[in-house]
C-alpha cells in the first residue's frame, strides 16, 4: 500500500517496539522487594497502568512537569489502594524505577522480525516522548539500537508529540519529505494524529483496543506491517 511512496519509517518506542507493560511490571517487582513494599503487585498494577497513561497525557499536554509525573503517578495509586507510603519512599521508588526500567529488554511480539524485514529497504527512525536519559538504554539493552538512523526525543525537541515541531524536527534531521515518511505508533493522539497533521502516512498499532477510526491504517500485531510495506 505504501511501498511505492515511503522511504523512511518512524516508530514510537514504548508500547510499539519496547514492551513497556511487561518491563515496567518486572521493574516494580524488583523495587518493591528492594524497598520492602508489601502491596500485592497485581493490585498495584491494576491501578497504575491506567493512572500512568492519564498522567502521561497531562505531561504531553504540558500540564505537568517531568518530576510531577514521576511522583504523582505513584502517590495517586498508593493512595487509591490505601497503602501508606511516605513521600520520601515515593521519591526513592521513583528514582529506582527510572534507574532499573531500561535494564529489562522485552520487546513487543514480532519486533525483531519486522525490523529485519524493513531495514534492507527503508531507513528506520524513532520519535519518542520518553525521557532522554533512558530511551537510549532501552534501545541498547534490548539489542535494537543498530536498526535506527535517527532517534528523536521530546527533550531534544523541546516539545512532545503530538506537537508538530517534533515531527518537523524528525523530517529535518532525516532529510525526508513528509509524503515519503510513515509513522508507526500505539497512541492515536500523539503518534497518529500528530504525524498526520504534518503530512506523514500512518499505521496505528492499536494495542489499547481503541474503537475503529479513519485516521490511516490500523493493525493489531506488529507483523501486519508486512501487508503495507
TrEMBL record:
CDD domains listed in its UniProt record: HAD_Neu5Ac-Pase_like (cd04305)
SUPFAM superfamilies assigned: HAD-like
Top-level taxonomic group: Bacteria
Signal peptide: none
Database matches in NCBIfam families: HAD-SF-IA-v1, HAD-SF-IA-v3, YjjG_YfnB
The protein's name in its UniProt record: Noncanonical pyrimidine nucleotidase, YjjG family protein
Gene source species: Muriicola marianensis
Amino acid at each position: 500500500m505504501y511501498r511505492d511512496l515511503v522511504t523512511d519509517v518512524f516508530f514510537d518506542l514504548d508500547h510499539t517496539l519496547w514492551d513497556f507493560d511487561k518491563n515496567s511490571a518486572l521493574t516494580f517487582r524488583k523495587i518493591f522487594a528492594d524497598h520492602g513494599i508489601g502491596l500485592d503487585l497485581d493490585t498495584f498494577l491494576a491501578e497504575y497502568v491506567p493512572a500512568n497513561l492519564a498522567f502521561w497525557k497531562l505531561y504531553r499536554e504540558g500540564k505537568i512537569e517531568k518530576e510531577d509525573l514521576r511522583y504523582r503517578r505513584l502517590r495517586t495509586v498508593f493512595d487509591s489502594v490505601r497503602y501508606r507510603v511516605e513521600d520520601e519512599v515515593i521519591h526513592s521508588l521513583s528514582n529506582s524505577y527510572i534507574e532499573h526500567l531500561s535494564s529489562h529488554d522485552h520487546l513487543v511480539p514480532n519486533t525483531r522480525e519486522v525490523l529485519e524485514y524493513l531495514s534492507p529497504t527503508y531507513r528506520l527512525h524513532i520519535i519518542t516522548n520518553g525521557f532522554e536519559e533512558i530511551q537510549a538504554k532501552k534501545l541498547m539493552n534490548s539489542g535494537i539500537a543498530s536498526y535506527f538512523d535517527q532517534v528523536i526525543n521530546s527533550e531534544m525537541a523541546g516539545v512532545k508529540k503530538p506537537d508538530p515541531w517534533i515531527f518537523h524536527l524528525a523530517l529535518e534531521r532525516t532529510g525526508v519529505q513528509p509524503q515519503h515518511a510513515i509513522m508507526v505508533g500505539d497512541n492515536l493522539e500523539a503518534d497518529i494524529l500528530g504525524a498526520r497533521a504534518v503530512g506523514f502516512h500512518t499505521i496505528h498499532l492499536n494495542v489499547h483496543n481503541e474503537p475503529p477510526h479513519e485516521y490511516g491504517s490500523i493493525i493489531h500485531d506488529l507483523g501486519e506491517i508486512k501487508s503495507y510495506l
